[in-house]
Amino acid sequence: MARTNPLQFIQQVRSEVAKVVWPTRREVVLTTVMVFIMATVTAIFFALVDLTIRGGLQAVLNMFG
């Protein structure tokens, strides 16, 4: 593996960072809101599934218990 000196390394890092396309503030806010919405929808879905399974299990146990 070829070794580079620290100055070359820093120059390479700066040139690579310059190629990065940074998101705009609007994009960051929009994707953050979408993540919160999806997390909320997922939490509600799994809460409903949990309640359904719990109710079904209690019904089965009450029939035999």
What does this protein structure show overall?
The protein is mainly alpha-helical and 65 residues long. 83% of the residues lie in helices and 0% in strands. It has helices at 6-19, 25-64.
Which descriptors apply to this entry?
single chain; mainly alpha
The amount of helix comes to over 70%
Q: Can you summarize the main beta sheet?
A: none
The number of E-state strands comes to 0
Identify low-pLDDT runs.
Answer: none
**Given the helix and strand composition, which structural class is it?**
mainly alpha
Shape: elongated
User: In percent terms, what proportion of residues is strand?
Assistant: under 5%
Question: What is the alpha-carbon Rg in Å?
Answer: 26 Å
Can you summarize this structure?
The protein has two helices and no strands.
Topology readout:
Blueprint lengths: L5 H14 L5 H40 L1
